[in-house]
Amino acid sequence: MNVQALPATKGNHNLLSYEETAANFDWSTVEKEFSWSTTGKVNMAFEAIDRHALSDKKDKVALYYSDAKRDEKYTFEQMSQMSNRAGNVLKSVGVEKGDRVFIFMPRSPELYFSVLGAIKLGAIVGPLFEAFMEGAVRDRLEDSAAKVLVTTPDLLERVPVGDLPNLETVFIIGDNVKEEGPIKDFNKLMQEASSQLEITWVDREDGLILHYTSGSTGKPKGVLHVHNAMLQHYQTARWVLDLQDDDVYWCTADPGWVTGTSYGIFGPWLCGVTNVIRGGRFSPQDWYETLQRYQVSVWYSAPTAFRMLMSAGDELVKQYDLSNIRHILSVGEPLNPEVVRWGSKVFDLRIHDTWWMTETGAQLICNYPCMDIKPGSMGRPIPGVKAAIIDDQGNELPPNRMGNLAIAKGWPSMMRTIWNNEEKYQSYFEIDGWYVSGDSAYMDEEGYFWFQGRIDDVIMTAGERVGPFEVESKLIEHPAVAEAGVIGKPDPVRGEIIKAFIALREGYEQSDELIEEIRNFVKKGLAAHAAPREIEFREKLPKTRSGKIMRRVLKAWELDLPTGDLSTMED
Ligand code: PRX
């Protein structure tokens, strides 16, 4: 491997020496940062917000929020009060410990108040990305048996309220809300609610958040995380994000995805750091302006966004004063060496790649300010965690051999179950002692990990994880579609795009209008980011004798690769 390593960053960093810390670290030392190590009573929202509201940080800005219409800020004390109000609103309709409270809306201060308010009651929060359409919303609310939903007037039409017997209350955040049946006016009730709330203390192993994510088969699965995850959210926010008291931090991820909660809510606030949230859609100008306006010092984003900024040109970035940025990080897909080099050129900083998954709850393999970076590598396991490359029998492979990227079971933020699907949960741990990630990778002689690809067919498009099965299921609901097979096709900006191969039913002719119609059908039924960008019609699709679409063969067709063993294919 012939890479030019970028030397460690200068400055005072929280993690001083990777080797030394990795050799000596023990998670029990992190517990002592929190009062619950002595009382045994824990609540994430208390540790993230109220703890600071009760300290000399109470007047420090916790949240800067802005979008095209709003421009607001909240101190830790105000965040504490607003989340207490939200907690009281939820309590008024009977929300209790363990209930699932789903939040389906674009970013707004109210989203954060509701998430924290629900957690204060010991409820389990289910964040839903705003782009989900009715089918996706239904699946998640049904599977989790959600009791309460917080949403907006625009999104309400995608919620099949009448079909969800467990859904008792729907709070609407909007103007002139007509209260009727299960519908309640959130803002009105917020005004009436008390800003005092008795927090519900829970056990460290009690449920905190339920993130639905895609696999290669079946419907999306609900990954459950517990309050104990805070140990790792906190410690990685210190070591990896390198958060320090005077930092202004911006994580660009939406809380509908795990990065937007673990590192858009929990990590930074556990450290008592000022958090920037920018609503609305991506645009290079808007993002650079946000970095400049708030004097962001630590910035956590994703390869697709960096690639889009890169293609917007270096002239644009030069128009902004971004001199406050001192640390940049990336997650979600492979970070190309080219992007790291671009970062060095325009920001004069290294971009630090981090690897983890919805299931892992927090960062696991990362690059640290105190460590040299090899562009293209995800870095090394965080102290206190063992990662390895193993074969299918669980043998650890020597350096430079490709295999399963696996993590020794039992890190603090590990998922605790897949909701309603213990069997699926167990399937991650079939090799004794290991969590098998589904990614393939190798480790070099110096212990750096290099991502190679997914072992299953999961697609990562623009940093979002899409299950081919969900898209195929939606496609075959369209009257023209007889069979559908979906793959990820490499793309220079988005990492991968979704490509669908379709066999039409008799009586249908292929046409550009039909392609557009099918694409919209998936957009409306599932989500815009799940709609195939490319559709190709085929007379027949490759299938196994048992009728399973062979995506591997579709991929080989697409990429002009050998198709491999076809012995299980039907004639
Ligand atoms: O394939 C890996 C890819 O994203 C998957 C996890 O997706 P999700 O659960 O949506 O979580 C994304 C953000 C935490 C992984 O199995 N992935 C994540 N980070 C990286 C990555 N691939 C390459 N490099 C990374 N740094």
TrEMBL record:
It is an enzyme of class 6 (ligase). It comes from the Bacteria. Residues 470-548 form the AMP-binding enzyme C-terminal domain. Keywords: Acetylation, ATP-binding, Ligase, Nucleotide-binding. GO terms for molecular function: acetate-CoA ligase activity. The keyword Isomerase does not apply. The keyword Protein biosynthesis does not apply. InterPro entries: AMP-bd_C, AMP-bd_C_sf, AMP-binding_CS, AMP-dep_synth/lig_dom, ANL_N_sf. Signal peptide: none annotated. Its EC number is 6.2.1.1. Residues 54-419 form the AMP-dependent synthetase/ligase domain. Pfam families: AMP-binding, AMP-binding_C. PANTHER family: ACETYL-COENZYME A SYNTHETASE, ACETYL-COENZYME A SYNTHETASE 1. This is acetate--CoA ligase. It comes from Alkalihalobacterium chitinilyticum. The lineage of its organism: Bacteria, Bacillati, Bacillota, Bacilli, Bacillales.
